[in-house]
Amino acid sequence: MNSEWYSLIQKICHIAHEETGNQLNEKNFTMVESRLNKRFTTLGITTPSDYLKHLNANFDTEKKAIISLLTTHHSYFFREYFHFEDIEKKYLNQIINDKRNKTIRIWSSASSQGQEAYSLSMFFHKLKKENKIKDFDYKIIGTDVDHESVKYAQNGVYFYKDISQVPMSYVHGNWVRGLASIRDFVKPKKHIKDPVSFEEANLLKLSNKFINDKFDIIFCRNVLIYFNQQQVSEIINSLLSRLEPNGLLVLGISESILGLNLPVKLLSNSIYCHKDYSPKEKVTFEEIKPIEKSLINVLCVDDSPTILVLLKKVLTKDKGFQVVSTAANTREAREKLKTNNVDIITLDIHMPEETGIEYLKADFHKEKHPPVLIVSSIERDGTTIAKEALSLGASDYVEKPDLKNIEESSEEICFKLETIYNDSKKIKPISKNEVTSNYSNNINNEIIKVLIVDDSKTIRMQLKNILSKNKQIQVVGEVEDPRTLEDQIKILKPDVITLDINMPFLSGIDILKLILPKYKIPTIVVSALNMEEGSLVMEALELGAFDFFQKPDFRQLEEESKVLIDKIIHSKNAKIPFFKAPIVKSRVDQNTMDGNYLIAIGSSTGGTEALKHILEELPSQIPPILIVQHIPEVFSKALADRLNKLCPFEVREAKNGDIVEKNNVYIAPGNKHMIVKKNNQNLQIEITETSTINGHRPSVDVLFNSVAQLKLKKTIGVILTGMGSDGARGLKQLKDSGSKTIAQNEATCVVFGMPKEAIKLNAADFIEPIDNISNKLIHMTRS
Length: 783
Prior knowledge:
783 residues; alpha/beta; 7-stranded mixed sheet; 7-stranded parallel sheet; 29 strands
């Protein structure tokens, strides 16, 4: 980094600190440089000196852009739901009894993109419908330091899948879903949006904002971690000066302020009040005892012993649940219902003997049967099976739980179970005609309908010949001119699309951006796999393409047929992460990792994006990481180059003889195995072209086995999404040699193949969602 860049980055970090309090140091400089480069592109600027001139000439507007670049905007609806529950059951009556007027005022003081504020509106609207706040109104103000986040919140348009995680009793009747080309988006109805307003506010520079408008409840969650202790004290005192004498201050569950000698007292679950609050009535907050409630008795029905064990860990007494029994199939479930007092059932869809759908058709009657929550690995937007379950009477749907953190990963399932149970006691069930579905209209036919998109008649003919070899696949159409693709999709309703990259009028990249997100059809990119197309294929995978396939070669037609057919069969029911605009977030580079560790990672289908997700979340100082991704020869360098641009450490395609060093990531070259050996005091990479293992070169097993043979004290093996079983035995060998091992969980895998086989072998110490693997690695290697 030259002196010109260094000086500019120092200035930017100083501006960010002055405006937001965020502490950025030299470890963050690479990240800041990367973000500034993107800003340069937007402005058409090429040098730091030109940007500095622009900054000085447009300081007020550019300052806002800097804040947007370097602050975090991640949130989700009903985050930490227990806060909402505590407010309703413990403190709401006290607030209402002391109110001087008929409007409850709530401030979401770090509202990000508005999810918290709209959650509060749904929550209080439900209380109003249930007559729990009688004739009171409510007003919610959301503020954030970033003007882009505020604009997003004011617009109030969200992805449909984001709101689908909320229980139906909160969503139903409150949101409008778009039609046709905008069906993937939702917006709140007038009665939810009108009580909410948004504006910019800096918690360190509130001045006189809101000073005369006291709030009954202030939410300031998951933001104090970005400030030092002095700043936290300033913020809390400022918030307290705007809080009613009997008001509630709600912080993030991990943000304790009790050691800062502030004028507050803790009520429960990171909910605080004024230290000197003394209500007019005799009852004080300390005397308000938690409402005693009986445990909700749950029967868990699933043929997977692993899921049943996990559900028992999730549904604990401290969360208000008791798993009274489990059943491996519906026959057992019927017997358990006769002998146990069951309040609610969790039901899997795919089970032996009888499916969950068949059970609901035969046995479910709302008046006689406990409410049912579908707990299944079925993708939210990928099937009509779960929709059918809802139409048959199931109350809601949730994907099988994650293992990243019991409190956090179980929040949605507990939230929905409790909501369903409470609603079943007081609200008339929603009729079939009112069911709000989270699922698309794709039908799970036995025949997989494939649409071929390629401007080459020869290639279309070859692909059609390949696919005709399998009776499960039917080519329903061919598209030569990509401008006609959308019409053909509507007519033919394909299950899978094969897509060329280079075509006239619309490229494959254009189609992935403009057309396929509307229909969410799994897509396999068919490419010539040359060096020029490497970056394009990487972009296609980032945009949601399921996989890639080399254009047919007559000399290897038989072998290629099997590969493409396998990809198509796996793609139909895979979890396809279709592209959406990325959420800008700042790397909080305060974690340290012991550089003496060695981390080995293996991945296949869906792995390029999984690797990106993990590496982007790691700090700048990391132990050496070795990666085998199943990838053709010409693409491994493109993958390494792409990741290198995104990460604050070096990511490179490995070369024979490379010395393994910390702060470096080595990606195995395509069509070559990568092993690691000891060379004196160093570890050295060896690249070989020996025969394929498990049908792959590079092979994950080859890498894992070589690491296991080193018998190092500090090693970690990670196996990610992918078809087949490559890496499963190698991960077991790593574990047996003393390494710690991680497998990606089913819910977040594009294809749950390699991790599934590793889990079957008991090769994984931890089963983690992709969102938590980087955190797990940081925790395991903390120096």
